Amino acid sequence: MTGAIALAPSAPVQVPVVAQITAIEASLLAFVVLTALATALARDVLAAVIVFGAYSLGMAALYTFYRAPDVALTEAAISAGVTTVLLLLTLAKTTRIDHDVAFESVNLPAVGAVGILFGGLLLTMGDIPAVGSPDAPVWSNPEVSQWYLSESYAQTGVENTVMAVLAAFRGFDTFGEAVVVFAGGIAALIVLHREVFA
Amino acid sequence: MSDVRPGDETADDDADDVPPHRARDRSGRLDSERRQGTPYTESQVIMPTVKIVAPFAFTYGLFITFHGAGSPGGGFQGGAIMAAVVFMIAFAFGIEATREWLANTVVVALAVGGALAFAGIGLLPVARGGAFLQYDLLPIPVKYGLESVEVFGIAAIVSGVLMGLFFLLANGFDSDGSGFGDGGPVDEDADELAGESGSPEADRTAAADGGER
Amino acid sequence: MTFVDATLAAGYTVSDFLLLAAAGFTVLAIGMLYRAVKGPTMQDRVLAVNVLGTNTVVILAILAAALSEPTFLDIALVYALLNFLMAIAISKFTVERGGVL
Predict the structure, then answer these.
(1) Where are the domains of chain A?
(2) Res A2 pLDDT > 60
(3) Closest residue of A to B96, CA-based?
(4) Inter-chain touch A163–B174, beta carbons under 8 Å
């Protein structure tokens, strides 16, 4: 059981993946799965929005544990600050239907269809390398990923490799991404038949 | 949730004890509560708290944006946090008051200016005979080139568009479609609509405009 | 050799114990989730999501210490600031179902 709370990511993999999951990972994953299920099944839309906020809390902690602070920060800023607020504003324009039941009734054919898709996706899991595995393409193919880690500071002078890749090495992609955000705002104007934002 | 609202009654039988500026707002709703005849005033708890928290949150958004090169973060995250501060102020002091304080020009200038700044920084090296976003052809060090893209480009676009989406969704759908083309302010359209047509959306918009403060 | 790498007992380091504590807080969060899902009133849910947010701030801070990455505290700070926004947004929404927004 020593493997259960060992700090796994940088250690080489000798034991099966399931045995290597740590207590914090297991509890965070349970939290995320439970909130996702509750979001999908909640009958009241406002309850679903609130539980979805809780879901993003778990995801942010999970990203942090896997040492992806930029993703975690995005999750924190967007979900806690923006998504919940925008969903609530949209809900304020609707009327509420009184529900007697807390949960949506489960549609069995839909569950079957989703189950088949999920099973198909699960089949690919065997080929995905474990977290921190030396066989992962990140490590076994060092001339790409390691090149960014070693060269990004020398070439851009930016300590945060994620930002160096985003703004410099993949700068044109980021430009497209920023234009997509801009176009999203314009599309919302068109959909809502408005000419001005504020 | 069926047990939370003691005055939970359907539609039209509770329109007698409401403040006049809210009456139309409530009439179309299935879940309107019976208020004790007092109009809603902005919360005395939320307003002072937001006054204290908002400057710190905004400064932190600026920090995330400007310090993205040395720590987690960057323009996208910082811009989202700065927009969230505006949401915070809007929830505390009323969306309509914030809409007047933060003019449409500011929101549009942030979004459009950000896109133009990003394109400009990208195209300047092209004009000098290099590639798009080739930072070493800029007159500033490479690091500041990246930072300026993050700060003037991405952060401005994200914060502007998110603020715009917020005000847009708060306004709701313009059911008449007259937001297009005629050039008149949208709020006036909504008021006219409320006067002459009985469509629920128009009523809601007008009541929200009138009853906000 | 930093503080979190120091061995406490039976070969477990301080980092291991911090991670275990974070796992404990996550279990508490799962318990709190019951209140957020079940309700029964919206006020219960607002309170539950606020507690969940505070809990997450603690988890993130513990993770930052356990992984000895001080910059991860940024995420905890952002959550602490924005969790307040989520709470006031939902609580104002519960008044007349957004009629006063």
Answers:
(1) 1-95, 136-198
(2) no
(3) A198
(4) no
